[in-house]
Amino acid sequence: MANEKYKIIDGHKHILYSDYLKVKNIEEKSESFFQEMDWRRSVRDFSDKPVPKSVIENIIKTASTAPSGAHKQPWFFCVIESAELKSQIRKAAEEEERKSYEGRMSKEWLNDLKPLGTNHSKPFLEIAPYLIIVFKKPYDLSKEEEKLQNYYVNESVGIACGMLITAIHQAGLVTLTHTPSPMNFLTKLLERPSNERAFLLLPVGYPVTEAYVPDIERKNLDEVSKFYSK
Ligand SMILES: Cc1cc2nc3c(=O)[nH]c(=O)nc-3n(C[C@H](O)[C@H](O)[C@H](O)COP(=O)(O)O)c2cc1C
User: Fold this and answer.
1) Can you tell me which atom of ligand 1 is nearest the CA of 181?
2) Taking 90 as the threshold, does the pLDDT of residue 17 lie above it?
3) What ligand 1 atom has the least distance to the C-alpha of 113?
4) Of 2, 12, 79, 119, which has the fewest Cβ atoms less than 10 A away?
5) Region 219-225 average pLDDT
6) What does the alpha-carbon distance between residue 170 and residue 210 come to, in Å, rounded to a whole number?
7) CA angle (197 as vertex; 195, 200 as ends), nearest 5
8) Is the pTM above the cut of 0.90?
9) Which residue has the CA at smallest separation from atom 19 of ligand 1?
């Protein structure tokens, strides 16, 4: 029978999806979404203006709708509001960043970073109302501490982070993709289980009233794509 709400395929329930696809004006919609996303920038100067917790919850729920290898959802989001923890994270991150800027990064890397005006100092880690630390899970642990394999973990968690950043921007907030490497100090500070690895650290909040960002150019469509039409 056509238009059944669900079907059993190989013993597993499949729901009718086309019901959800009701978008009209796809040209307009895709253009306006691009315009909106083109405004997204990484911001390094945060205000301490509070953000409702429910907004952070919605942002994480959005990220967690991401596709993942074999639907394993190999991610975990730690949300830091505690001033004490933020201060410990800042101290540890700045220590790692100092070592990176003073010896671990190549000359070429440091040169590439110059236009961005970054250095080891990370005051936003204490100022932003929330820090979201994303962890990836190379494997899950059963109740009996048995390892359960996850698949395409970096790809899956990377996509979830892209959706997280998109949701933050869409909510009218800003973030910075921060990687104070190596990031294992976060596993210890946040007392995460042995199957989790810190993936990205994202401060979330409002920018200061006069926030400046580097004047960078994005590659155009021709530089990032090729259409094979024939
Ligand atoms: C994986 C990744 C790691 C990054 N790590 C840092 C970082 O540790 N510190 C920082 O200031 N910016 C970091 N950035 C932000 C980039 O510098 C920024 O995205 C880039 O300059 C483009 O600017 P935009 O995000 O405003 O478009 C990182 C971005 C990505 C995607």
Assistant:
1) 8
2) no
3) 17
4) 2
5) 98
6) 20
7) 150
8) yes
9) 42
